[in-house]
């Protein structure tokens, strides 16, 4: 049996020049839809109640470099920043004060590094990497309270927070594309969000 030039039995094309399309001259195409003029043109915004639930839930899963640095300065009991990248990435530079636990070793080593009630924040390279998400999943499956640091190590460094290597710790100036460029972030200058 054939339907539309493709054999229902074999799944193969008929090989004819028209690929099985008959009466193609009578087909009409609908015009492409006009894109909405504003972000609210395509879909209605969520109700304020639904938006509050969504954003509250989002903050339960993620944090940013500024909030992490504030937790470090405050000395929050049980707070641990976890670099989940490879050994080579760790050696290249990491967020000062982070503990190193590559994602592949989480199942075997997490219990020896973290108390059961630890408040963990994980990161990987950048917003283009989902390694932090994978690590957060692995740690949550082990029963840990965990959040992912959005932006990863890239935004930690670009926002001017201290970067540690085996040669020591240094802070860069803030990249003006991600924050006020007037001083290193270690001086306490942030976006004030």
Observed structural traits:
193 residues; alpha/beta; Oxidized Rhodanese, domain 1; five-stranded parallel β-sheet; three-stranded antiparallel β-sheet; 16% strand; globular; disordered N terminus; transferase
Give a description of the structure:
With 193 residues, the protein is α/β, with parallel strands linked by helices. The protein is built from six helices and ten strands, in the order ββαβαβαββαβαβαββ. It has helices at residues 48-61, 65-74, 87-92, 106-113, 131-141, 152-158, and strands at residues 2-3, 6-7, 62-63, 79-83, 94-95, 99-100, 119-123, 145-149, 163-165, 168-170. It has a five-stranded parallel beta sheet with strand order 3-8-7-4-6. A hairpin with a 2-residue loop joins β1 (2-3) and β2 (6-7). The chain starts with a strand and ends in a 23-residue tail after the last strand. Mean pLDDT is 82; it is low at 1-24. Keywords: Transferase. This is Rhodanese-related sulfurtransferase. InterPro entries: GlpE_sulfurtransferase (IPR050229), Rhodanese-like_dom (IPR001763), Rhodanese-like_dom_sf (IPR036873).
